[in-house]
Amino acid sequence: MNEGCIGIRRLADPEIELIGREIGRSKPLFSRSADHPISRSNDFRITRSTDQRGFTLFEVLISITLTGLLMLALLIGLRVANRAWRTGEARLRLVHAEAERDAFVVRQISSLVPYRITSSDPNLPGRFTVLQASATCLRFISSYSSVYRSRTGLVLVEYGIVAGLPGNVEVALRETPVADNDILYHKIVLSVTNDPDTGLSVINYQPFSPKATDLRLMTGLTGAWFAYLDLHPKKGAFPWRTNWLSSDEKPYPDAIRLHWERGNQSGDDVMPLRAKLIPPSAMEMTQ
User: Fold this and answer.
1) How many angstroms from the chain centroid is the CA of residue 118?
2) Residue of 170, 172, 173 whose CA lies nearest to 144
3) What domain count does the chain have?
4) What is the extent of the structural domain holding 142?
5) Cα 177 from Cα 174, distance rounded (Å)
């Protein structure tokens, strides 16, 4: 080759052997002393840490169990609170319903209208005041109705103490618009007889038979009856009586009381009457 050119010369075998021996005797590029920290073999041993700040499996299971019990207790508490709230709400609705019922009964009975009918039926002669007042039945004419409030006019109101579930009684209400006096007369009066002792007419009323359309105002009662107040009773008579016979002097009682019993509870609903005497205009109403 030319001297100006870079060339590669093939080494002879003795030269290659010499270079290999020199390389074997040479030191590494980066040498460390025997006491260097990294060169110590003990520094690379795998040892167990003495730090015990972790959680064992048993501790994890205990934590999960306690958390589940707390969640269960919270769920039970929410269910109990919800049930108590619903029970209180139902009881409050019942109290409001009973208050509305009492207010309605008081207003309807207090709105009693004086009313007399003269019968044109020869089999049922007579003139009588529309009022049946016994312990288990109360019939009268009123201007206040639970069904026909939008209708002007009068209604025949019938309260009856009827049998309910075995051992219980109920207070039923029936209302009928007054359209014709003859129909009204036959709806109330069954027959008319004369008392042999006094010679006065005795009115036998139609029995109050419960119907499916009757409004049940009070249910689940163990006892109930009506009583009627006479502020000026005869000598030796009680002011409250369970049967009222209308007369020209006292056509209506001064007040009506509904006594009811339900288990250990009992109560009296007293309704005063504004109708004391029958005015002449009502006594001579058109037949």
Assistant:
1) 48
2) 173
3) 1
4) 88-283
5) 10
